[in-house]
């Protein structure tokens, strides 16, 4: 993907996270962006919050989310150089596969599917429309993998508002805030998927761990890209 | 072997192995059988790579029925089937059934030479709805 192919600013999402060049500045041009940096900041934020994610998962799940996510993102970090040599679609698919193989739990297939589907849908030199469409399709793929939908106290409850915010052309920091608010909004929800659903009403009052990790990833990516713009 | 194969996927290797023991007691070596359990790092969980390996081990041209315990086992098994891809993927079915009872009943059905569809249907009869 080459700089300057996007029309508007605010392209700051997961596909952007793995996009070497999808950085938009205020004038609407994209700067070169380093995939390795994005891999590094996402692995950093997961590592820094691993214990928090585990605590959230212990409250209403099986308590392995922090450790699992950390293992997966460190595995991606370990091969960052290799991913960075690939064209964008191939890099995303390879990162997704790596997450599937290393994260474990239900999160491995779910986060892995997000990246694999992005890689499948995105073009090598995506414009804004392609990025938006690919992210939308990736969210659909995650919903299908988890047999879930928005409102069931899952990562989808962050992904969908982030997608909406992107469509609205919000800035990176605004999108990061949208993601945090969306994760907070899972607290009063009743879990309808995953282990937390076994708790029924007792799942109410706790944040979904997958929603929190998704928001962490979104913030890391959005702020990094904004900082580069 | 022409009989349908059975794969058991539990978060716990002890549950998976114990279930496989119960299946063996019922059908001996008449059914290709493999199990996996654990996250691959010594903890509870399921692992796509291990599931793909178990499917290979229990592979039969008649197909493979997978019995799982909790959600992650199902999601990871579905992921494994997708990654194996065609031409084998359409012959691998993740059953909606209790893992122990489902494995024993599915294997018993398979040992009589039943089709994949019949084996899976037998397991599904154990689940309400």
SSE blueprint:
The complex is a heterodimer of chains A (229) and B (129).
Chain A: H1 14-17, E1 23-24, E2 30-31, H2 35-48, H3 50-60, H4 65-78, H5 80-84, H6 88-103, H7 107-121, H8 128-145, H9 156-167, H10 172-184, H11 209-228
Antiparallel strand pairs in A: 1-2
Helix pairs in contact in A: 2-4, 2-11, 3-4, 3-11, 4-6, 6-7, 7-8, 8-9, 9-10, 9-11, 10-11
Chain B: E1 5-10, H1 13-27, E2 33-37, H2 48-57, E3 64-68, H3 71-84, E4 92-94, H4 99-111, H5 116-124
Parallel strand pairs in B: 1-2, 1-3, 3-4
Question: How would you describe the overall organization of this protein?
Answer:
Chain A has helices at 14-17, 35-48, 50-60, 65-78, 80-84, 88-103, 107-121, 128-145, 156-167, 172-184, 209-228; strands at 23-24, 30-31. Chain A has one domain: Alpha Horseshoe (Serine Threonine Protein Phosphatase 5, Tetratricopeptide repeat). With 229 residues, chain A is mostly helical. Chain A is globular. A two-stranded antiparallel ribbon of chain A has the order 1-2. Chain B is an alpha/beta fold and 129 residues long. Chain B has a single domain, classed as Phosphotransferase system, mannose-type IIA component (Rossmann fold). Helix content of chain B is 47%, strand content 15%. Chain B has five helices and four strands. Chain B has helices at 13-27, 48-57, 71-84, 99-111, 116-124, and strands spanning 5-10, 33-37, 64-68, 92-94. In chain B, strands 2-1-3-4 form a four-stranded parallel sheet, with helices on both faces. The model of chain B has no long low-confidence stretch (mean pLDDT 95). Chain A: This is Dihydroxyacetone kinase, C-terminal domain. Chain A: Keywords: Kinase, Transferase. Chain A: One of its GO terms (biological process) is glycerol catabolic process.
């Amino acid at each position: 993907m080459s700089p300057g192919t996007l029309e508007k600013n605010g392209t700051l999402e997961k596909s952007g996270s793995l996009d070497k060049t999808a950085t938009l500045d205020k004038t609407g041009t994209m700067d070169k962006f380093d995939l390795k940096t994005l891999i590094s900041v996402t692995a950093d934020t997961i590592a820094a919050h691993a214990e928090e994610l585990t605590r959230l998962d212990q409250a209403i799940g099986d308590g392995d989310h922090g450790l699992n996510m950390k293992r997966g993102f460190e595995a991606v970090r370990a091969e960052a150089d290799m991913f960075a040599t690939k064209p964008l679609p191939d890099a995303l698919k390879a990162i997704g596969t790596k997450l599937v193989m290393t994260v474990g739990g239900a999160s491995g297939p779910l986060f892995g599917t997000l990246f694999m589907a992005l890689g499948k849908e995105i073009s090598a030199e995506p414009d804004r429309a392609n990025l938006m469409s690919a992210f939308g399709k990736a969210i659909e793929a995650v919903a299908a993998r988890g047999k879930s939908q928005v409102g069931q106290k899952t990562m989808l409850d962050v992904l969908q508002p982030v997608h909406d915010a992107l469509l609205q052309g919000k800035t990176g920091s605004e999108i990061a805030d949208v993601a945090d608010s969306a994760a907070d909004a899972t607290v009063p929800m009743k879990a309808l998927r995953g282990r937390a659903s076994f708790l029924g009403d007792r799942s109410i009052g706790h944040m979904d761990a997958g929603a929190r990790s998704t928001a962490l990833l979104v913030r890391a990516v959005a702020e990094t890209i904004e900082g580069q713009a | 072997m022409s009989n349908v194969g059975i794969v058991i996927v539990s978060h716990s290797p002890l549950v998976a192995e114990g279930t496989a023991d119960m299946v063996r007691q019922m059908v001996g070596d008449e059914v290709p059988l493999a199990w996996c359990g654990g996250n691959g790092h010594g903890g509870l969980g399921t692992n796509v790579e291990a599931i793909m390996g178990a499917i290979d081990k229990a592979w039969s041209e008649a197909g493979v029925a997978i019995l799982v315990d909790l959600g992650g086992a199902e999601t990871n098994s579905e992921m494994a089937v997708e990654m194996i891809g065609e031409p084998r993927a359409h012959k691998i079915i993740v059953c909606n059934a209790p893992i122990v009872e489902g494995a024993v009943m599915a294997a018993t059905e398979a040992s009589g030479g039943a089709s994949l569809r019949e084996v899976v249907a037998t397991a599904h009869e154990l689940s309400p709805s």
